[in-house]
């Protein structure tokens, strides 16, 4: 084993070894300080010692779903609040509707959402400082983009059809087996980019791959960047993590399209004839100053790919697995979709009449959404909850979604069971709008709550319902064994098992469900 003198000699002759050891020491000291500062006097699930708490952090990393459910079961109605350790800080989790509602109502200068997301994803260094400082894309998503979904729907269904046809090519009665996560991410990226940048770029395989890779780059880049001191983060983001290279290449792809649109605007005015209706156009209309540069517009398009890739494709992967392993629901869903499409054609309004379809998608998100937690906040100043719990500045606070979604007091005796048409029955019982898949509230938390609820949820749900409806009309689906491998967890993120595959067969009109 190397002694101290040998270690010092190695550091002198190999500066990178010294730098690595210094970084490791810095990260350990920083993590300890942050953990100490984020200490909250509430019950902890797992060990709390300076070193033993890392055992709890490891369990949270590997089995976050079990940790969260265990805490929910233990503290629901028994204080309704507890904390868990991750590798960098303590996280406070709340279980009751009263405390989650209190989080929703807290002023933004007390419990911040954007600041929490920026810290978690290191947005300044992964997506760029302008994305962190100027979120002008958010009101665009809420207003122009969402209002245009009806006009965009012909493009959406056209791209869904094209993407599925390109990805799934069975012949005759042949079954084709595809990786769920890989196939869904590719198809979702294509369809999403049809509404972001239009044809032909949405079908450029390299560009589509960039958007998918960017999602991974941001997640990995955030984890790496958090390890470094502030004065090194910029260097790391530029030369160590791959986000900068992906952004540069995406800009090269987008540049001709952006220049062409600017030329058309200069020649014919802002609202020129045949102006594309897509997110890029909305960005260009609203951008000012430095945001008008192609590189900055490209960053926003990549950011939209990140949101789509990190939530919609994961959620729809779960939807696909549910429908492939539960053939008893295919016939009623297919019957509903076929009847509505025969009457109205493929329109957004037609899908809005498919209540069973909407309920199926919502039930999938209830039991297996993209994550077990919701409504991320960070305390921007010291804060005391109504139950007397003191939350110091810098503390991360989140509501537990999965626990509430499986709570018999919230969803009845069958709360842990998959009931495909649960929300259709709730609609029929009253409060129709409350039970739409896009609706948010204390008892349904995949999209968050309050004014910071996901502004893109209308788009995400429309994409998932359109893709599911298209599959029902055109394919039979199943898995080889009738079951699927369980999902995997990264902290509390619920991901489809990488080994999960679904089999497709081109459907003949009137063919039985296989």
Automatic annotation (TrEMBL):
Principal subcellular localisation of the protein: membrane
Localisation: Membrane
Family matches, as InterPro entries: Cyt_P450 (IPR001128), Cyt_P450_CS (IPR017972), Cyt_P450_E_grp-IV (IPR002403), Cyt_P450_sf (IPR036396)
List of residues binding heme: 454
Family annotation (PROSITE patterns): CYTOCHROME_P450
Similarity remark: Belongs to the cytochrome P450 family.
Protein name: Cytochrome P450
The species this protein was found in: Sistotremastrum suecicum HHB10207 ss-3
